[in-house]
Amino acid sequence: MDVATFLIQCLNALQYGLLLFLVASGLTLIFGIMGVINLAHGSFYMIGAYMAFALAPIVATTFGGGFFATLLLGTVLAVLLGYLLEWAFFSFLYEREHLQQVLMTYGLILVFEECRSLLLGDTVHGVAPPDALAGTIALGQMMTYPVYRLFVSGVCLLLALAMYLVLSRTRIGMMIRAGSTNREMVQSLGIDIKFLYRIVFAAGVAIAVFAGMIAAPVSSVYPGMGNSVLIICFVVVVIGGIGSVRGALLAALLIGVVDTFGKVLLPQASGVLVYVLMALILLWKPDGLFKAG
Asked: So where are the chain's domains?
């Protein structure tokens, strides 16, 4: 492997890991802070990808906007979707057993998949990156790297930093962390924990939808794409530590490196390397790399 190829694989690993973190961070917030096993989280990623495909012509025709206007509109719609879903369904699950949570959220997967099939069909779609980011940069004499992939990595890094600052340096972040530790105590202090959970859930859905939208030009849009990303997101949450955002970031980057270089160096075994990594880390630290926070 020459230097240019190694550099490209490093950039691919970084981009994949950061995008995976973006999806998994919403799951770790919902799972770790609210205690809800949300199997439908991967469907939000799928919804985001299909939004990038379906909303683009509408935004272009109605508002004269392009890819970034589509991102903005899709994120706003995702916040509203998350808020409504928490109010209508998830608010009844906090005191229920995990089996009931699994059954209800699995039912949502079936509903989302059927709605997707009825509205947009079962074919694979491509989403073009914005013209400003459609170019490439040279890496060596023979290889290039897409500018859009660098854009995705940069956006994910900015969102990771913003998430850290909100959770660790703001009043609402303090309330979220306190609510994940002792819900009754937070309520006794006069904080509306139900509204707080609704905000957390809406933010988690919006992050997953946003991740799906920016990933669409890279991975294309296809049926069932949410189910495959859900499994790897749970691996991220388990490795990083349930409820830990910084743990999810480190775990996602580790998985990005193992998966990317595994496909290059050990293609026959690449499908199991991530799960071997999870097993080894859990043998070392059964609770994951970090605790909630």
From this structure: 3-284
